[in-house]
Structure formats: structure tokens, C-alpha cells
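User: Sequence in, structure out. Go.
Assistant: Echoing your sequence, followed by the C-alpha cells.
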Amino acid sequence: MRKRRLVTRAVLAAVTAAVLGASGCDAVGGASPAPSGTGGRGARPSPKPTPVWDRAPASVAAVGDSITTGFDACAVLSDCPEVSWATGTRAAVDSLAVRLLGRAKATERSWNLAVTGARMGDVPGQMARVVTHRPQLVAVMAGANDACRRSVDAMTPVAEFRASFEEALRTLRRSLPKSQVYVASVPNLMRLWEQGRLNPMARQVWDLGICPSMLGDAESLTAAANQRRATVQDRVEAYNKVLKDVCAKDRRCRFDGGAVYGYRFDQAQLSQWDFFHPSVDGQARLAEIAYRTVTN
């Protein structure tokens, strides 16, 4: 019996040693998990990677054309930057800057460098002025004037449009490599024609020279007129593809996915003076689209 007990003890000792050896004789350290209830006090949590896209930038600048200057939204033939979708301060619009920064900070930390009549070829120069403010987010809306020319032959070639947009981004990146860029699609000009072509007042104003490539001779449904409008629409869609493709190559650039192009503006959302530019309500819709794209 004594020998049997000694053998049993020896076996138990060997098994215990084997188990401890397999576990590294370290109940907490090494590669072994911490015992339940210790909370892993010896381990340091891995730092969370900084996201590339910041949904809450601290400053905003805008470049582009008359849509961003609020042209014809408040008074005829006048800019009205206080209702701009990008940086306006009027409560009825609730601009992108106000939504991101709050009304007080938006006044101090947002800048509107857009110019009425600008085309994409003007945006690199606007971007050069933007960098002096060092904004964390730059909002871009340009392209309507490239398609709205006196004739389809005068529209900006797609390759030229692309080169200008690429140069605008390079200008920004040379000075501000980490600034974010929101890019709005070019609006659906065919939709504008469809909304106003039966309105005598709209036709009268358009005949003064507003976007003649699309809106000129608005009542005509001849094959030539329809082909002209289709050509303009094709060019707008080509511009939007450029915006999408170029933006996709920049990890800190977001295109709106065609949201502005796809938005169905109605008469209430168009200027009562030119039936082309956004009204105050239309500016608010643009602000909603921009904010949704930036914060999602």
C-alpha cells in the first residue's frame, strides 16, 4: 500500500509539472490570457487609428460659381452670399458651415471665394486664394457655366474640364495636404428646362441670355432643338463623371454621388427672377445634400 501511494504521488507530481510546463509556469504573463476577473491589467489597449475623413471639420471654405454666391436668391442680378448653401448665415438656409460649426463660429471660420460667372477653369485660382485661410474643408461646386454657353460648340471640352479640376486639387494639396474636399455634382440642366419651358415669364427671362445652350428657344421641340439639349445634357453627365473619377483618386475628397444632379428642383426652389439659380429654399436643399455627404 505504501509503495502504491508513493507511485500515485509521483504520477500526480509528473502530471502537475507537465501542465505547468505547457502553460509556461506563468498564469498571467507571456502569451497566456489573463485569468478571469483581472481585467487584463498588464495589457495596454491598442490605439485607435485616426480616421482619414473627419465628419466635424473646424473651418470651411467654398469655391465655385454663382450658385455658391447666392446669385438672384435675394434680389435681381445680385449676389446674396448670406444665403449661400456653403457658407451662408441666414437661418432659413442652415448652410453647410452653420450645420458643421454653429452660427457664431461659421461667421469667423468660413470663407466664400466663389465668383459669379466662374467656370472650372477659374477654380484653380480660387483654390490658390483658399489656401491662405487654411480651411479644414473646401466645398466645390462648378461646371454649370461650362455647359451653359452661347452654343454647344462653345461648351468647355471634357478634357479641359478635367485638367482644370485636377489642377485645382493639386493647388490645394501643395499647401494643405490634409484638408478635406466636398465636391457637388453639376445640376441637371434638362430638369430646369422641363420645369420652366411652359412658364411664359421663365421663357421671356431665358431669352435674355440665361444658359442659351440649354434654355434658348425653350418652346421649340424640333429635332434640332431636342438634339441641342441632349448634347448639353450629355456634357453635364460627362463633367459629373470627371468630378467623380478625379475625386476618387484623392483619399480626402468626397463626391456627392450625383445627389445635386439627381435632385428634382421645383419652381419654389428656383429664383423668382431668373428661374435658373436656386432660391433661398433651393439653397437650403443644397446645404442638406452637402451636410449629408460630409457627415455620413
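User: And one key feature?
Assistant: Residues 1-40 have pLDDT under 50 and may be disordered.
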